[in-house]
Amino acid sequence: MDLCALLQQYAEAGDDEAAAPAQPEQQAAATASRKRPRAESSKRDGETLDRLVDAFLLTQNTPVGEGADGEEEEEDEEPVTVLEEMVQCDVGRRVTVALLAALAATEHAKRGAVAKALLELFEENEHLPEHYVACRILSALTRHGTDDVQVGVLDLMRQRGTTWEGVRKMLCDRHTSVTVEHLLQRVPAATAEWLCEVLGLSAAAPKKKKASAKKAAEEEPTAADITHLVEDPVAGQVMQRLAQTHKANAALLQTLDLDALLETKRGTALLAQLVSFPADQPPAAKEAAAAVERLYQALGPRLKELCVDKSANFVVSRLLQLLPHTGAKSSASALEAFVDKLGGAEELRTLTQSSIGVHVANTLIDVAIATDAAEEVAALLMPARHVKEMLTHPQEQLVIRHLMPLVAKKQSKAGQLLLHTINDDTSLAYDAMGNLVFQDYLKALGPAGASHAARKMMKEDNLLHMCQHASAAHVVHALLDLVDSPTQTALCNALKQYVVQLATHINGRFVVEKLVRVSREVRDELVKQFTFLARSRGTQHLLCTLFACLDARGKQNVVDRVLVPQLSALAIDQCASITLQKLAQADPVAREAMHKMIRENSRLRSDLLQNFYGKFLVRICETN
Fold first, then answer.
1. Nearest 5 degrees, angle CA 202-CA 208-CA 209?
2. pTM for this structure?
3. Domain boundaries, the chain
């Protein structure tokens, strides 16, 4: 275990050196004396690693000594080498894996030699890839080996899996399936091509002669066989990884029984992966159209039921994301066809009231906005007579928030409807759900619109009440980020006289934390009341934020006027002691000042150690 720890240190050191940025010449020269011991230590570490590698390579040809009974091995049998015995021992496996990781991290010159020695051992011994210990070394070779070694591991697995039965055993065996999964990560194209060929999922699958048609039928995997792989707890992980390569997705969609897949969690997850594509690699129109047609064929009768299923709703969402890529003349017509298959506009609005189905509706909105079909979808989801009720509904407010980008478009009827409805509803900011809608509304308006809304609030003179309200406080907090600079200053000035009162309020303190970061006048006002706030409940995080936002002069002012003179009284107070502890942990200036006073005043130190609250401050100051 000590050797494993040593090798792990080499691996971490190699990663640190690779990630460390290059230093300027002046800085390097200034710290030359400090760096010299580290450089010498690195050199010694490199020499030690070299010796470990040389010793490891010697085990390749070193036979194991005679057994305990003293009998010599038969001349016909080849002697077992130390390396062969090592890879089958759990302790040796740990050392070998740690060595491979260290060589890969440091890019050692003999990394390839060590990996090839291990690969040759696996090629010569057929039982090793399935050995419960050695298989983990084969996986490590895939992760840490060079490109040619990874290809060698793939060739080794390909030789063992030339038939359907061989691949099935390999994927269902927890010892070999991990190696195949890692190969799909490291060598995705070649590994996927091999698996697709054997599983009969590619055009390159070998054609059988007529004479052996019966035998071929027995060897060819059926749809039920592949479905069994998907549902297998071990092979299912490999099939998920295979689906991520997109090499066999079209064939799997046409081969598998989608109804059977939708009955299980693993099958549903695989189906969702089969119809998922990276944003930067959209599918071809023909491929997308075939996938949509196959999904409609399988999901059609159960589409509404699947929309509210906690697993299958992801499949429906992926189906919606495929619609713009099918090559249809109009995205709006494709989305309308989906709504028709769902059962019409009434069924679609029913989804918006479901905690799961609403996410399908939101995906429909996102696709519609991206394809300029938002007006048609908004008309279906947001009838004018129901908009006001939707603003505060737990699920339907999510639909409104997804439609909020339309507010910025003056020609959008849905956007103008939202604009007028929210403007006329002054109570929206005070609602538990409505405040979320109002925040997204302010974001959609942009800095100019948000600033106009803020000035309107200041004229109504209800900012203090909003800051103290559990929901409206979040609106004020968001406003400080969204408005322009003049309006932000005006907000700070309007709230400056209330900051001490708000700092001790359970909702207002979060607004004050935002004000502290943007207004020096607010910081000065709070510094004047530092002692009072330190003794108040719930202000500890606010005061740490305040201290962190002060410049060097401001910090020294707090230290000289508050921390040092009143340390003995504050440190034994239930609330103030927590403030001092957090300051000592977060800021070196405060910690050093308090530590100096405690160190120089032995009586103060003794009194604090005898106090329940003070002893924690002493320990923090003396241990950091």
1. 155
2. 0.81
3. 539-624
